[in-house]
């Protein structure tokens, strides 16, 4: 029991999660979300699943969307994220999900530490001030707790809608345009939709931001249309 608690409060675990979170953040913002080339090679027999973008006049697979902020079309675009200053599309959606997941985890960690400080260190303060490394440490903890709660509410909402979107295989843009009630398409199992987003069926790899994503072959006839 003592060992287990020690593991949970070990700062190295916190630093480890922070590194995963930072790598996911940097890679999500610099990875190409799935920009289409000028002259895309349309696989034979899939022409009917492609369409012309009326903004940039280029052919694109259905489910692509033209991002007005980036000025080009993105394959299976989910949304444009101002926090990473990039589109979230087919090629970086998995990194965006990891970013949400690790931010959520870090927030819980920070909150746990803040509350430990309240309940463990606050009574000590009255007895021995030398226990505190920095002045105003409790004020910093209160600030951290406030920011933690704010982040927890925001990120939980975002992460929840993202997970529902993946399970139902619907992008945020498709959800907003309410297209999908009219379209009947085979409902895929959640393992399949997650595997497609992460580019692998190995569930442990879904949590690792240090790798290259290899797209699973998804026939376009599964795709729906905005
Ligand atoms: Zn376009
Ligand atoms: Zn964009």
From TrEMBL:
Biological processes annotated in GO: protein targeting to membrane
Keywords for the protein's UniProt record, in alphabetical order: Acyltransferase, Membrane, Transferase, Transmembrane, Transmembrane helix
GO CC aspect terms: endoplasmic reticulum; Golgi apparatus; membrane
Transmembrane portions of the chain: 12-30, 101-122, 143-167
The protein's Enzyme Commission number: 2.3.1.225
Main location: membrane
UniProt keyword annotation of Transmembrane helix present: yes
Bilayer disposition of the protein: Multi-pass membrane protein
Domain Palmitoyltransferase DHHC, residue spans: 50-177
Record-linked InterPro entries: Palmitoyltrfase_DHHC (IPR001594), PFA4/ZDH16/20/ERF2-like (IPR039859)
Keyword Membrane: yes
Subcellular location: Membrane
Catalysed reactions, as listed in the record: L-cysteinyl-[protein] + hexadecanoyl-CoA = S-hexadecanoyl-L-cysteinyl-[protein] + CoA
UniProt superkingdom: Eukaryota
Domain notes: The DHHC domain is required for palmitoyltransferase activity.
Family of this protein: Belongs to the DHHC palmitoyltransferase family.
Protein name: Palmitoyltransferase
Source organism: Hipposideros armiger
Encoding gene per record: ZDHHC21
